[in-house]
């Protein structure tokens, strides 16, 4: 496939799991090859520091099953975030599930112990193995929210062939946060010459500003902080041209 049609769903998840599952059907658009929902879409985090373990589900549970049903019905691949039981019953994984034309599971590596939060008190970190999946002939690497601040994960995914990075997020609002988000999304795209699809939850609690950025750092689509769906087309020719123009991956010496 020479191009990939993508849609990023910037919509808030609530505290009722069943209602969030219904949103998958309501919000997944037709006509996209890849649809990306935000982090923790199966059930919001709740108040800071809340125990989310009662809402953890297996990756073949109700949320992932509905995600697969919707993806199959739309003829697409869908990515969305959920909580999954880990070996520690009090600290589940923060997990991305990919269903539809491709299937994968990614457990968030870097937990948000920053800006006054302690995600590791309530969640378990996933294994450090990068996770990639093929979608329509493009190699897609999976990251979640705070992972964006760690360039070594993005580079590890690219070293394994990633051409697109998908970053579902619930990027908490606050001073400098939108600026950090936009800067980091564009940096990961530019330094790795990849497309980046960064899908966030909307304001007022989160920062919104879902982004699609191309391998030279041009913003192909951007939301504001309201609930919305943004779309873009990723062209392989754009990727190839960027890597010829800026062969930074080939020029590395370290």
Automatic annotation (TrEMBL):
Residues 4-236 form the CN hydrolase domain. InterPro entries: C-N_Hydrolase, C-N_Hydrolase_sf, UPF0012_CS. The keyword Hydrolase applies. SUPFAM superfamilies: Carbon-nitrogen hydrolase. CDD domains: nitrilase_3. Belongs to the carbon-nitrogen hydrolase superfamily. NIT1/NIT2 family. This is Carbon-nitrogen hydrolase family protein. It comes from Nocardioides caricicola.
């Amino acid at each position: 496939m020479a191009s990939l049609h993508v849609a990023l769903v910037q919509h808030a998840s609530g505290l009722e799991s069943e209602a969030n599952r219904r949103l998958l059907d309501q919000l997944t658009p037709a006509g996209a090859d890849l649809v990306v929902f935000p982090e923790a879409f199966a059930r919001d985090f709740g108040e800071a520091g809340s125990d989310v373990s009662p809402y953890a589900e297996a990756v073949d549970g109700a949320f992932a099953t509905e995600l697969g049903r919707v993806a199959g019905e739309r003829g697409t691949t869908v990515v969305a975030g959920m909580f999954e039981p880990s070996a520690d019953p009090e600290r589940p994984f923060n997990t991305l599930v990919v269903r539809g034309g491709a299937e994968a599971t990614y457990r968030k590596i870097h937990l948000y112990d920053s800006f006054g939060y302690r995600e590791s008190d309530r969640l378990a970190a996933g294994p450090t193995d990068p996770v990639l999946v093929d979608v329509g002939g493009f190699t897609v690497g999976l990251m979640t929210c705070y992972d964006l601040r760690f360039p070594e994960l993005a580079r590890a995914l690219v070293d394994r062939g990633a051409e697109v990075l998908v970053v579902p997020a619930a990027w908490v609002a606050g001073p400098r946060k939108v600026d950090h988000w936009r800067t980091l999304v564009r940096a990961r795209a530019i330094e790795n010459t990849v497309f980046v699809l960064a899908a966030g939850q909307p304001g007022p609690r989160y920062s919104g500003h879902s982004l699609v950025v191309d391998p030279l750092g041009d913003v192909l689509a951007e939301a504001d902080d309201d609930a919305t769906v943004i779309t873009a087309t990723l062209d392989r020719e754009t990727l190839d041209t960027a890597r010829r123009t800026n062969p930074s991956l080939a020029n590395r010496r370290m």
